Amino acid sequence: MANIGKFNTLPVIAKSDNGVYLDAGDLGEILLPNRYLPANCEIGEQLSVFIYLDSADRLVATTQKPYAEVDTFASLKVVQVNKMGAFLDWGLPKDLLVPYNQQHKAMEVGRHYLVRISLDHSTQRLIASSKIDKFVDIWPADYQVEEKVELMIAAKTDLGFKAVINDKHWGLLYDNEIFQPLRVGQKVTGYIKQVREDERIDLTLTRAGKGKVIDFSSQLIAYLTQHGGHSPLNDKSAPELIKKELGVSKKTFKATVGNLLKQGKLTIEPNGIKLT
Question: Is the model's pTM score more than 0.90?
Answer without folding.
Answer: no
